[in-house]
Amino acid sequence: MKSILKEPLVHFLGLGAILFGIGLARGDATGPSTNRIALSTGVIERLVEGFRMTWQRPPTESEFRGLMTEYLREEVLYREALEMGLDREDQIIRRRMRQKLEFLTADLVESIEPSEEELQAYLDEDPDRYRQEYTISFTQIYFGEQAGRDPEARAVAALSELNANRSVDPQTLGDPFLLPAAQRDLPERAVPATFGAGFAEQITDQPLGEWHGPVTSAFGVHLVRVDAFEPGRASEIDEVRDAVYRDLTGERTRNVEEQFFQRLLAQYKVTVDWPEGMEPVDVPGVIR
Question: Which of 35, 105, 113, 183 is the most buried (most CB within 10 A)?
């Protein structure tokens, strides 16, 4: 049964039901039942439940009478406004009604849960999109501008001293820096965000535990020692299930909405009176 519900045909059957409802609504607008207002059980229950959720208790008889009166006022005035065409050329109303119709199709798609196999297949189609970032830990020594002293030359001299004498305290060789010397477990995207573009490429392929440089950043010149590096990797579905689910259902919703719209558009004959001097533009669904 679940596999049947996932078929696109079922989606279209659901959309067909919506189209049928739209057709009925259009027909009712000019039919003999235009002046009939039928308050169904569902309407009554929604009025009562709405009051209960707001006030944490059921309405009294007097309060319920007020709810009914307000509902009828809204319904009658709404119908009269439609009859007078007050909804036309109102951009806010147009957008709101479009949203409500799109919500119908979105709810239809989202009610059909994707299977584990579908989630895994969606992940496999674009694994880089959900890739686990690398993490890196490193220690850096900063060399700033000093009068008459080139920072890169100072960094090269400090690197020679570090290689010749492992007991030297690295932080005695550089200048004060606004960030900590030791950076621990930085995720991939944080490295360029913190040190600027190109910094990561200069350090991620270096041997662990060895000083390297000069390395340039958005701040200036550094020596860097990579202390730990955890490579990036493809994600398992359990690690990114929520993101895959969100993206898959979102894509399905957009596809069904577009198909639904195209079926609706096909019911119309669209023509355009182009302004004088304006070259006609090819628009899907518009007759030139």
Answer: 105
Q: Do 242 and 277 share a domain, yes or no?
A: yes
Rg (C-alpha) for the chain, rounded Å, is 33
pTM value is 0.60
d(CA 15, CA 9): 10
Q: How many domains does the chain have?
A: 3
pLDDT of residue 20: 53
Tens digits of per-residue pLDDT, 224-258? 999 999 999 999 999 999 999 999 999 998 888 88
pLDDT, tens only, 116-152: 999 999 999 999 999 999 999 999 999 988 877 899 9
Q: Which helix (H) or strand (E) holds 226?
A: strand 221-230
139 and 274 together in one domain: no
| Helices vs. strands in the chain: H and E counts, helices first | 10, 6
Q: Does residue 155 sit in the same domain as residue 197?
A: yes
Instruction: Please give the pLDDT value at position 184.
Output: 96
Count CB neighbours of 53 within 10 A: 8
Burial per residue of 242-277, b for 16 or more beta-carbon CB atoms within 10 angstroms, e otherwise: eebbebbbeebbeebbeebeeeeeeeeeeeeeeeee
Shared-domain flag, residues 250 and 121: yes
Report pLDDT for 235. Answer: 96
Q: Which two tokens stand for residue 17?
A: 């039901």
